[in-house]
Amino acid sequence: MTRHSDVHLVEVGPRDGLQNERLILPTDLKVEMVEALARTGLKRIEVGSFVSGKQVPQMADTPEIFSRMRRQPGVAYTALVANSRGLEAATLAGVSEIAIFAAASESFSQHNIRCSIAESLDRYRDVASAARQIALPVRGYVSCVLGCPYEGYVSPAAVASVVRNLFAMGCFEVSLGDTIGSGTPDATSELLRVLLEENPPERLAVHFHDTGGKALDNIDVALGFGLRVIDSSIAGLGGCPFAPGAPGNVATERVVAALHARGFKTGIDEPKLGAVSRRVADMLGKRLVPETQQARCE
What we know:
The structure is a single chain. With 298 residues, the chain is of the alpha/beta class. The protein has a single domain (8-293), classed as TIM Barrel (Alpha-Beta Barrel), CATH 3.20.20.70. The chain has eleven helices and eight strands. An eight-stranded parallel barrel has the order 1-2-3-4-5-6-7-8, surrounded by seven helices. Helix 3 (62-68) links the parallel strand 2 and strand 3 (76-81). It is globular and about 40 Å long.
């Protein structure tokens, strides 16, 4: 049974992180990255996505990564899919679970996947139904829950509608994505108050991009509402290729350090995680921001 003090992290660096990097890592380095992350104690790792290689070239080698990586017992290796063709490829690769994604903003949906929110949900109903038939767990993502690069404010009611549809089609969990990093603690509170009127906290996750150091504060708010699943990205990699100016995801190592400082349990080895962060930054030629210059979660 999960204890109240347990928090579970979903590592999205290999997918959401790398898809927004200009440098496309060689497949062997991606495999190294996934295997190293699995040795830190992380239990859910989003390895890649089965989408168009022309649209997201950073993810074109996802099938090869799945075929080459050595899997750790007890670790779920997941992937994003965009349609039935992606589901078929993911199934052949032996994914542990799939994720589907919709937006709470009509403009973002059109820019991202070139269809309306309603059309995207219709598409994903078929994907989710096919996945359920083979007992493959389906996770849902909602983009732009706290703001859109094209529309600005997104109402909690709009988010709630998409969340409702994702659960209705069989998602076991829905992750709430602050895609452009515009979220604040007050906005996070407003959103969660609305969503928790219909959904238990254990079925929701949060996915914050960092803006002015607010991601950890927003996570703190989510924890206060009883949520215990957090998406994060090693070394703070990521953003969104379809959201201009989107900042990187909150760094996994920062989230783990903040959680441990507050007495939460994650099952993740901090020194090992720090070593992986430095190695990933080196792979991409990035400089990590010293912890003393980062906002802390109090």
